[in-house]
Amino acid sequence: MTTAPRSSPLRRLADLLTGASGLWILLAAVAAAVVVGSFVQGVEPQRLLSLLVRGVMLGGILALGAIGLSLIFGVLNLPHFAHGELMTLGAYLAFFLVLLLPSGAPLGPFSFGIEFLIAVAVVAPAVGALSYGLDRGVYRPLRARGSAPIYLAMSSLALAFGIRSVVYLVWGADFRFFYPGRARPAFELFAGIRVRPDQLFILGLALVLIVAVYLLLERTKLGKAMRATADNAELARVAGIDTERVVAFTWMLGGSLAAIGGAMYGLDAQMRPEMGWWLLLPLFASVILGTIGNPYGALAGALIIGIVWQVSTAFLNPAYGPGVAFLLMILVLLVRPEGLFGARGKRA
Question: Under CATH, what is the fold of the domain 9-33+43-344?
Fold first, then answer.
C-alpha cells in the first residue's frame, strides 16, 4: 500500500512562517489599523511597541494551552472544556510547592527563585498524569460505550466545574500571588519599550517549549504517530500504530503544557480560581482561528489573539480587549470558515 508523500519538516516550518494563506495579510491589516489608530488618537509609539511585546508574551502563554487543546481535539475529536481548569490547577499546585520549598534569593533580575522552577518542573508532569487519569476514568469509558461527542463535551464541562470547586475548597476565592510585595521593576529594551524581566523569561520559556513540541511532532516516531492518528485514527490503527499509546501521550503532553502555561500566567499577573475559565475562550478562539486540530495553527492563532487583545487596550477600555480579539476571529472565519491554515488540510 502506498501513501501520499509528506512534505519535509523544513517545508512545514516554512509553511508555518510564510505560507499560511491570509496570515500575513491579517497581521499587515492589524498593523495598519494600529498605525492609523495611533495617529488618530495620539498614542505614543513606545506604548504600542510595549503592548506588542506584552501581546506576544500573552500569545505564548495562550499557545501552551491552545496547542494541547488542539492536539486533544485532533486525536480524540473532543473539545476539552476542562483544559482551562488544568491551567488553573497547575498554577495553584506550583504556588503550593513554592510555599513548601525553602525560599531562595531571586534569580538575577527575576522576581522568582529556584524554588519556582522546581515547582513548575514537578507540577507539569503531575498535571499531565492527572489529565491522562481523567481520560482513563471518564472519557475512555464513555468512548467504549459509543457515547456521542456531545456527551463527552458535557462531561469535560462537568469536570471543569469539579476542578474549580476543588481549587475553591483548598485555596479559597481570594487572589493569590507567587511573590507578593517582591518588586519587579521594568527596564527599557530599546526605543522606549519597557518590559519586566519576568515577562522576558515567560516569553523565552514559551518559545523553547513551542520549538520542543514542533521537533517532537516532526522528528520523532511518536510525533508522526500522533499526526497520523489525528489524520485518520482507523487507518493509523490498521497501519500498526498503537493508538492507545498515542492517546495517553497526547493527554500527558496537553496537561503538562497547560500546567506550565497556568503557572506562567499566575507569575505574570495573579491567580484566582476562575482564571482558567476566563482563559478557556481565548484558547478555543486561538484553536479555531488557526484551524481546529492543527497545532501549528493554534500557535499562530494564539499569537494573533494575544497581540490584538493587548494592543487594542491602547485605544479602548481594557475590558473590551477579549471582545476585540473575538471580533477579529469572527471576521476571519467569515472569509475563511476553515481557519487560517485550513487550505492545507487538517495538518500543516
Answer: ABC transporter involved in vitamin B12 uptake, BtuC (1.10.3470)
CB atoms within 10 A of CB 68: 33
Place of cell 480587549: 321
3-class SS shares of the chain: helix, strand, coil, % to 5 = 75, 0, 25
Cβ atoms of 74 and 346 within 8 Å: the answer is: yes
- Measured CA to CA, the distance from residue 270 to residue 263 in angstroms comes to 10
Measured in residues, the chain has a length of 348
- Residues with Cβ within 8 Å of 43's Cβ and at least 6 positions away in sequence, in order, are 37, 314, 315
**Mean pLDDT for the stretch of residues 34-48:** 62
d(CA 295, CA 71): 6
The tens digit of pLDDT for each residue in 316-342 reads 777 777 777 778 778 777 877 777 776
Candidates 275, 305, 274, 276; CA nearest to 288 is: 305
Do residues 101 and 296 make contact, with C-beta atoms less than 8 angstroms apart?
Answer: no
In this structure, what C-alpha cell is assigned to residue 25? Answer: 495579510
Domain ranges (residues) in the chain: 9-33+43-344
Give helix then strand counts, H and E, for the chain.
14, 2
